[in-house]
């Protein structure tokens, strides 16, 4: 069964919409939502991730698709057919783009499209029972294949994100330290120039002063 559904902007991880009633029958729903937020954060830092992926987490599995800088993600039981999960996400994507496509990039607050929950709940009901004729037909649709979609473990995916985060922090720290060293180098060069030319400037000053005094006396 479909358990959770969340939609977020990939460029910054901003959550755009969510299935509001999804977590009622999910123990530790908050834990899995935190994992989803961590996944969205990781996706916002990585430019070359697969546009479709399945990620195993405990007794469940996340499925997501990315299109138009938006990630559509659902969490299902592991026994739920992968093909139906991705067709469910395709239905959400098509409707979300149709209704909100022009506003996605300018959305500034979390859950700006929370009213999309109505469509999420309606579509979710259509996909819950895998034995309906509608869903059996979708499972038998040979034109829609999901065999090549990669499946990974959530610890592996989040671990990669943490390493990238550490690399980013290290890069920022090195950049900051480089600026500090550059400033110190400029100060040292300035001090060296002062030490080199200060005696000359003093001598010239004395000569000019003597010349001025002499002209006044004469």
Summarize this, please?
Helices cover about 55% and strands about 15% of the residues. It is an alpha+beta fold.
Show unreliable segments.
Answer: 161-171
How widely separated are the two ends? 108 Å
Q: What count of structural domains?
A: 2
Share of helix, binned: 40-55%
Radius of gyration: 31 Å
CATH class assignment of the largest domain: Alpha Beta
Written description of the protein model:
The protein is an alpha+beta fold and 218 residues long. The chain folds into two domains: 2-164, 2-Layer Sandwich (Beta-Lactamase), CATH 3.30.450.50; 167-217. It has five helices and six strands. Helix 1 packs across helix 5 and helix 2 runs antiparallel to helix 3. The radius of gyration is 31 Å and the shape is rod-shaped. The termini are far apart.
Secondary structure topology:
Elements: E1 2-9, E2 15-18, H1 29-45, E3 52-57, E4 60-67, E5 70-77, H2 82-100, H3 117-128, H4 133-139, E6 150-153, H5 154-217
Parallel strand pairs: 3-6
Antiparallel strand pairs: 1-2, 1-5, 3-4, 4-5
Feature tags:
218 residues, alpha+beta, Beta-Lactamase, 2 domains, 6-stranded mixed beta sheet, 5 helices, 6 strands, 17% strand
């Amino acid at each position: 069964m479909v358990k959770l559904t969340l939609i977020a902007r990939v460029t910054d991880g901003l959550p755009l919409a969510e299935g509001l009633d999804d977590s009622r029958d999910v123990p530790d729903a908050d834990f899995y939502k935190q994992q989803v937020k961590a996944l969205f954060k990781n996706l916002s830092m990585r430019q070359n991730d697969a546009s479709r992926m399945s990620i195993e987490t405990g007794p469940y599995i996340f499925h997501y698709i990315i299109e138009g800088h938006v990630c559509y993600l659902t969490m299902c039981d592991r026994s739920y057919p992968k093909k139906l999960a991705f067709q469910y996400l395709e239905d959400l994507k098509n409707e979300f783009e149709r209704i909100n496509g022009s506003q996605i990039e300018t959305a500034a607050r979390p859950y700006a499209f929370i009213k999309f929950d109505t469509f999420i709940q309606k579509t979710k009901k259509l996909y819950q029972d895998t034995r309906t004729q509608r869903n059996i037909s979708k499972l038998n649709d040979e034109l829609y294949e999901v065999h090549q979609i990669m499946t990974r473990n959530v610890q592996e995916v989040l671990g990669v994100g943490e390493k990238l985060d550490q690399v980013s922090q290290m890069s920022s720290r090195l950049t900051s330290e480089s600026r500090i060293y550059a400033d110190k180098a400029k100060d040292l060069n300035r001090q060296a120039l002062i030490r080199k030319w200060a005696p000359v400037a003093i001598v010239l000053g004395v000569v000019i002063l003597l010349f001025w005094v002499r002209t006044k006396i004469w």
